[in-house]
Amino acid sequence: MRCLLLLLAGFIGFATASAQTLPVSPPATPPPLPAAPTDWLLRELDNSPILRQHHAGLQLTDVATGETLAAWHADKYFVPASTQKMLTLYAALRILPDSVPALRYVVRGDTLLFRGTADPTFLHGDVPSTRAYALLRRWPGPLAYAETPLADAKLGPGWSWDDYPYYFQPERGSFPIYGHTVRFYYRRPGLGVAVRPAWFNSALRKAERGATSPDHVQRELEANRYTWFPSKTAWVDEVPFRTDRGLLLTLLRDTLKRRDVQPARWRLRPGETPKTYYGLNVDSLLRRCIRVSDNFLAEQTLLLCSAQLGHDTLSIGRTIGYVRQQGWLRALPDSVAWVDGSGLSRQNLTTPRNQVALLLQLYRLVPEPRLFDLLAAGGRQGTLKRAYRDPKELWFWGKTGTLTNNHNLCGYLRTRSGRLLAVSFLNNNHLAPTGVIRREMERVLTLVREQL
After folding, report:
1. How far apart are CA 111 and CA 287, in angstroms?
2. Residue 117 and residue 266 in one domain
3. Domain end: 255, 271, 286, which one?
4. Residue at a domain's end among 219, 254, 286
5. Residue 426 falls within a domain, yes or no?
6. What is the DSSP string of 75-140?
7. Distances in Å between the alpha carbon of 234 and those of 18, 193, 213?
8. pLDDT-derived band of residue 188, with 50, 70 and 90 as boundaries?
9. Does position 241 have pLDDT exceeding 80, yes or no?
10. Is 72 helix (H, G, I), strand (E, B) or coil?
11. Quick one: pLDDT at residue 18?
């Protein structure tokens, strides 16, 4: 027994000594993973003291490959504000013809029976189309105006009621005239105010001595009565007017210099087929709508689409429903709340990755030169004229969107290396001034331009 124990101890000692003399490999450790090419960007966003407190999200996608390069809160919902107009642009490009349908008409003997298609350019101050005006002005016989029913309220769902006197929230209609606004021109102290259309002169009065206002012109809530306030400098102001059929007929008679514009009903007789009279090139309308973010033109564009689809009663909701039914939004990864054409409503909701998917759809639908010509361009035109500047080359084309406490941007970014990226950068619920948010967004996207 003692011999057996000695043999066992000797074997253990030999094994231990042998183990100590054999080379031992260190345990295998996986090599460190290479950093993602946009990890630096996510850190930049996370560490930004300006973006930290409010609700912000961003997505970057390579247009050529469809590869998502960065997604930061990109699946969260935001109020898009006027970036919602990109959905309006998409619908218009798929539905409207090359020229804007200006009106529908039937000839009965020497009478021209006509009705509106929601074309907003009739005597509009910024995108005026004179074709329909010229037709009505020179028609040799009587004119009979038939109202096209409008299913929607004149002001959209979720719009701020107290914005009623401001240029960016005119009422919607089936036959707009003058953009549904009155323009006031104050040249210099001591002179009165010029009014366009002049018919509204009788509705204007000067404020009482000593009265002040943050606005140059005030309008009563329920009536087309205006008060103007003198100042030491010249100004131009634009104020919406309340609309109805009687006022439209009055303004038509006034501007056409014709008393024979009479109301009528749109009841077609057997064998009658209405014709469409076309006006402005559709890109002229869409360019103005998107570049300067014209809310009225955007709302009327969706109503124009409704008319083009053959709806006897014009409806923005029906246009939106048609776009959904066609499956044109199927590529969007998330549901979208879409209630108006302009983005004035806070009921609109979407995600950054939705907007990027839409940008990719638009890029496939329209040739790049035409698409970029419709958008605001950094340092050159529209709402981006004073941002994203480079005197040597354009590098950002897109659409801004601003409401109180919200500032958003979506569009296309060309990097130094030549890559084209689809970008959505949304900011909601911030208390910082909009300019502070805008400059931080530009700083971040400038880094993207330089490093990707």
Report:
1. 35
2. yes
3. 286
4. 286
5. yes
6. TS-B--GGGGHHHHHHHHHHHS-SEEEEEEEEEETTEEEEEE---TTBT-SSS-B-HHHHHHHH-S
7. 100, 10, 16
8. confident
9. yes
10. strand
11. 37
